[in-house]
Amino acid sequence: MTDAVRPPLPPFTEESARAKVQAAEDAWNSRDPERVALAYTEDSVWRNRDRFLTGRAEIRAFLADKWSRELDYRLRKELWAYTGHRISVRFEYEWHDADGRWWRSHGNEQWEFDANGLMSRREASINDVPIREADRRLH
After folding, report:
1. Residue 3: its pLDDT value, please?
2. Where are any strands of DSSP class E within the chain?
3. One Pfam family from the UniProt entry (predicted)?
4. Residues 105, 108, 112, 113, CA torsion sign
5. Domain interval for residue 121
6. Cα–Cα distance, 128 to 22 (Å, whole number)
7. Whether the model pTM is above 0.85
8. Is 43 within 8 Å of 1 (Cβ atoms)?
9. Which residues contact 94 (CB under 8 A, 6 or more apart)?
10. Domain with 102 in it: what CATH number?
């Protein structure tokens, strides 16, 4: 485990949960796998669609691969619910593939945090919908 602290810390209030969600949105929109991976515990466990990952190294590699394929990625997250050391969000993001086809991806995430505010577990369900570039909402 790491001794890093990543405020806001649990137990969450509405204000601190919203701040945590905004921090995650900002980090993911950086498309920087190193920066994003630092928000997770060294042994964080993920389910992302049909992929199961464990640990920062796997998360970092997953994100680098993701953003090499999901070009011009832009994300919005919204707080759905919170309690104690857990937060639930809904999100959508838009991106295009190497052939120029645009997609909007919709999903839900459940997050669990350790006492230092690092995410120890992430469960993500995501669906992709093809869109026309003219129909993009996120720029």
Report:
1. 64
2. 40-48, 51-54, 71-83, 86-96, 102-113, 119-131
3. DUF1348
4. positive
5. 14-135
6. 22
7. yes
8. yes
9. 72, 73, 74, 102, 103, 104, 105, 131, 136, 137, 138
10. 3.10.450.50
